[in-house]
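Subject: Interface between my chains keeps coming out wrong

I've been trying for a while to get a sensible model of this assembly. When I model each chain on its own everything looks fine, but I need the whole thing in one frame so I can look at the contacts. Pasting all components below, labels as-is. Any help appreciated, I'm running out of ideas.
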Amino acid sequence: MIRLLHPLLALLFAPLLQGIIMKTQAFFAGRQGPPVIQPYHDLARLFRKGAVFSETTTWVFRAGPAIGLTIGILCLIFLPLGNMPAMVSFHGDLIFLIYLLSLHRFFTVIAAMDTGSAFEGMGASREMSFSALAEPAFFFGLATIARLTGTLSLDQLIHGININLWQTHVGSLALVVVGLFLVFLAENSRIPVDDPSTHLELTMIHEVMVLDHSGVDFGFIEYAAALKLWILGSVIVGIAIPVRTGIPGIDISAMCLGLICLAVIIGIVGSIMARLRLLQVPQLLVGACIFSVIGFLIQ
Amino acid sequence: MSLAKACPIENSQAIPFSRVPCVPFDEFHRHIVETGHHGTRISSLFVMETSGSAPSSGKTPPTLIRPLRLVAILANDAGKTLTVISTDIGTSYPALTPTCPQAHMFEREIAEQWSVLPEGHPRLTPVRFQPPLRSNDGYPISANTAGLPGVTDFFRIEGEGIHEVAVGPVHAGVIEPGHFRFQCHGEDVFHLEISLGYQHRGIERAILGGPHRRTLHHMETLAGDTTVGHTLAYSQAIEALSGCKVSRRAKVLRAVGLELERLANHTGDLGALAGDVGFLPTASYCGRIRGDFLNLTALICGSRLGRSFIRPGGVGFDVDSERLTRLTDGLSRASKDVHVAVEVLWETPSVMSRFEDTGVVSRKVCLELGLVGPAARACGSEQDIRRDFPRGAYRTSKILLPAFERRIGDVASRAFVRWAEIQNSLLFLREILQQLPPGEIIEPEAAHLSRTLEPDSLVVSLVEGWRGEICHTIVTDAHGAFARYKIVDPSFHNWIGLEMAMRNQEISDFPLCNKSFNLSYCGFDL
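Reply #2:
Try treating it as a single job with all components included. I did that and got this:
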């Protein structure tokens, strides 16, 4: 039963993280902001709506969002949360998880390309070139932890993080957390890489790829985006917070608190700095790679 | 070689139309090119029908056609001289644009409005896709006019890796319609072509034969965010033609309206610039403070956009002592807020790295293309109608020119110039509100002004709106009605500046460059 707990938590509370980010940004902007549960209202609204499909699109365009959401849910099965074990775990599942996320991106991109729109093509090209840089950073980050804990299974890898490991390897762990955080910002299209709230189609990266989706399909995309935030977030929190008491109540609370803190940090970053120039984004991601690689080397 | 003698005129002072010199075309052309080398800008260049007989061109039947006159209003900011010169033209004439690039948009407009061909114009595409202005059908209407907006040939670059991006006229945000065609290589823009005309309402045609009862309304809605600016230009012209004197109190109140409009729009623009780079604090605060400035306008006249405030002969609303206190209090509050909200912008490195060296328009290009307003001042071109051709309260209370160091024509310069102008406007307002002169606010006979306009006259009215120089030119007929009313919104000069700013830029910086100019679509489309 406990193995079902984390997927359920994620499915239920993933949109809440987005709500916390919005609330934080509203605070810095001097506004009251939408209620924390606004993402749920948005999803409910989208699921009630009908979808409009352009005549030039094919089944690829319609399939994209559903496949994307399916993959998002699939990822949850392999995902531990601190001491809470994953539903399914096997040797090498962390590589499998990374490629599931790539598959998600692949379907988003081909659905965008299917519209034939110049904007969506541009967005797809940006997404692919940036993810090509974000992926190695993610890989090296997890490889560092895998080497420290001596396992290639995500479940045991996160489980293996504890206070002692942080005390002996604080340098490489801290570097990995920073590197993964940068990847996390890029993958979730957050400032300084992307701005999810912009309406300017020429500057968007992720948002421009989903411009043509509407109604239920767009709801799927939004929900999958919330899940992705939770998935990458729980990996970072799992590494950054070494609370492994064995008492489920404390462990789960610590992790959830960590996720909330992470959302607040994203909100703060998004409030106190502007977006990078698009051509400087690769530099940021290369920086993330370097953090991870150094973390890998210095242990 | 001596230059043709152009007639010197004053801002908002009528002269008999007979005094406008009509010289042979060669002299006209030489005059514009030569004075252009000495920093003279074309404020307005337009064609009108005259009552004389047509120049014999042989092919056209002389009976139906009234001859055309090409009139140029030239402004020299450094010399503070405003001149007018004209020439007669037939169905075609050698284009000015190849030797004088700032005429390019005017000549495209002339070709469209009058079916006159400027021979040798490098790019003669429709401006507004409007039907010809000519009052009778003597000449065949050329095929490129009166089509659907945006349906035209666009400049195309071909080659490996080149792709075309078409944006608009329907945009993702709530903004005016306009079509933008980018020729890109990857993320880099080689060329941008802007095609407007979606909001053409035929204002110049509608007010011919006026002033009508709706003329004032047309002026107020010409460009909604420049209501005070355009209405003021119109009122100054009407007052000049009717010999009406405006009281000192009304002059000061007009300046208050004009500066409040500038404050609101500049503040809104700085907020929008911050929003475009995803910097939330300034974006949200400036959005609110813009509302505070708009509310101050509403405090005076009941309309946030300043409708019904400016009237020919004076202003429609007075400011009593209680309102004056609320106005000055509101100003000092908004002044404090705007300082806090904007200074955060300059102190944030990630914002400045986006602003600096983005969308550069060099001073040379700016002068060649005749850009106006803050966009030109950001390139280091020194011009301001309030200083060079002052009217009303600007004659007695001098306004400072924006003092700022960065004048290289990038987004940062255009942001700084706005900030400097905000500060100057606040100082100016504080000064003139302290010594608000007593007196009437409107001429008692104001309602009848439009019936007594000077016949056969020309008047040029210039106002420094928040976007730059607004130029209204009226030519009256023998009965004192409008024979020609030419409106030049600052956007008409400046859209080409945006096209130039985008060359060799990243396409993702377009919204930022666009916002740094923040030009009007409807002011251009008329």
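Reply #3:
Confirming on my end. The two ends of chain A are 37 Å apart (CA to CA).
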